[in-house]
User: Fold these one by one.
Assistant:
Number 1:
Amino acid sequence: MKEIVPCEREGPRLAESFHHQLHTYALAASAAGVSFLALTEPSAAEIIYTRTHHVIGNRSSYRLDLNHDGATDLTIQNKYHHTCTSGGTCRTWESLAAKLARTNQVVYNIYGAVAMKQGIRIGPSAPFHGGTERMVTYGNSSTPSGSWINVSNRYLGIKFKIEGKTHYGWARLNVQIQSPLTITATLTGYAYETVHNKTIIAGKTKGPDMAAAPSDTAPGNLGRLALGRK
């Protein structure tokens, strides 16, 4: 009678090989400063959006706290001005401006704070300036000037700090000019990106923005490499 030789099962060897490879890539992740948990749970960006409706009429202002931490990040102020020279010539005007707290800044150009359209990126490459940036000025003897003349759903691009780190956000406003010397701004919403130094898109109310192309050593790919996949 022919002897039957039992075949050795491959399951334990395959399992042992898999765990060895997974352990090897886990060590690689650790060496790269990535936690083992990041293999299956990569972090995601998040946009925090707040819908509101606040009218800022002549001689009024609004303190905006983008991340609701109790600190004012900027003040949108609508101020009345009246000056007279020694010769008796007087000038009166109303101005709408963004007054930035601390080292915070807004996107600007030669006309002051920019009235950005929806879809424009707000991030490190944008031109920013702090202090008080004009939005629109309307004088009794001149036509209105600035970027925010009779606009709807335009965005103020903002760079501000959270616990010492730079974040980007936006504030959406409508602005109407009427005679005599009337500026009415309406704040309808604002948002910020929770990940520091990450660009936000004007008008975007939820994330993530855009995922970068993953590399072989990215945390999300280490598990696939351990399984022998690319």
Note: The chain is about 15% helix and 45% strand.
Number 2:
Amino acid sequence: MTEQTPIQYRPYTRTDEEQIVDLLRVSMKMHEFPDLQGFWRWKHYENPFGESPGLVAVGDEQVVGVRVFLRWEWCAGTQVYRAVRCVDTATHPDWGRRGIFERLTTGMLEQLPGLGVDFIFNTPNQYSMPGYLKMGWVQVGALPLKVRVRRPGHVAAVAIRREGLGGATEITDEVDNSAVLECLRDPGVRALVETAGAAHEPGLHTARTSAYLEWRYGRNRWYGYRAGFDSRGDSAALAVCRVSRRGSLKELLVCDLVVLPDPGSRRLAARIVGRLAREASVDYVAVSGLGTCLGLSSGFVPVGNRGRDLTVRHLESRLAVDPTTFSAWAASFGDLELF
């Protein structure tokens, strides 16, 4: 390859899969990621919102760059909005400084109006954030959190020692979420999901269907989850959580709550989360501060905006909500979790 070697840009096809997976291993250092090809297929082909659109850069008859947007659907009130999330982006290190990332991104932006997309969202890190802002993304802010501390002595000791929390546990092996899938396939859970979906929550949240939840959590073989469901009379609640380690602390993240809009259902949700926290022996439980039913009465205290940093690019479509402000959102951890 030389500086004059031409680069071709085109939509990716399934025949590019093997080269794309090899590129991800090299450029994103995913050599140890278990069954990366299976992860790609689950993520981009099996998604109930639709197959992911994307572009590849080809040089010397090899895929040297890739840019893929994950399809997503958000609900707010009675409206459903089609969106995409910026996810897998890679450039081969031997082909750097050729403008491949920017060319792939602008090429994808040109395609989106024809795909019926209302807006783009993603959760960039500190290194990629400036590039997105330069290309027209708006920084909405970090996700507000609420936390319930279960082992205050241990948490205080960690704070006194000023230990860094670090990142979440890295993926080294495939996981078994068959118990989660079994829970989600329960007829009571499916009835709850259908009924709760008809309640028309006003803030932006993922269009939760049984197909989505089963794909997102039950058939996910790379991130481990725990699920709990309970119903009493006309009340019902479902919680899907994830256990992670951050430094010497063990956390339970409440990824998704499906709860009927009555006090009894909210109490059930708190009990389910409490039970999952006890079973996992965690130090604290964290939940999104947007549109959740878990609050002070359940022991959850706001701790500020400490979650993932959300950015949005609004397209030309007319929306009844403004996704560039947090006041429009009721997103959960699961909605914004990077995977």
Note: DSSP finds ten helices and twelve strands in the chain.
Number 3:
Amino acid sequence: MSGYDLIGDIAIIKFDRDKTQKVKKDFALEFLKINKNIKTVLEKTDKIKGRLRIYTTKFLAGENKTETIHNENYCKLKLDITKTYFSPRLSNERKIIAEEISKRINSKKNKILIMFAGIAPFPIIIGRRLKIEGKKAEIISNEINKNACNYAKENVKLNKLEDYVKIVQCDAKKLPEKLKQKKLPEKFDFIMMARPNLKDTFLKTTLKLSKKGTIVYYHGFGTYKKVKNEIESEFKKLNIKTSKLEIRKAGDIAPKENRWCVKFSIR
């Protein structure tokens, strides 16, 4: 075994290539015995890839299912791992962002946008924290995947956040037009770009949805230098003026490949 993820009561295990099917099956059965909270064991058979970033898996043991409810940061997140992207490894990142936004939010009803939101873990965790603290906000959860948006709507109800989170299904590049069409906010106080590992930075779209003082959280991938260069070159091309970049490591994606969170505000 070279690694695994636990999503709800489902374990997704990545095996070394030389392992036989019998070895994998035996390991899965033993995993179920040791981990009583796990009901299903799946093998991860390929990298998460494609436009919708979905797991490719094979059933090994337990209940033959792919839908589950994942508990994180006191929130419930329902999903089907074969239809939507979700990373339990971003749990701490979601907590950090929620804490930062909570501290910065003012007395007005702040407008918050989460791009590439998937089943809405960022919106829900942020929304829950603000609700508990009695702070008002309008949170837009944007995602291209229709299945993910359907689960996001369920998750909003599951966590009783209908007054905080609205789901908008569309390509991120079409978001400005979509928001106008739906008569939703077109400028935001905070924008979280939970961006996938794609070539496009989507900063051009973010600029259209920003105003002076908007705080942006951008996810970049690779080395510190690569991420810093890509974002600064995009700023230059788009003539964007911002505060000094604050860059911190937000997780590993592969050996010597990291996820970075870049925070800045629009000037």
Note: The longest strand covers residues 40-49.
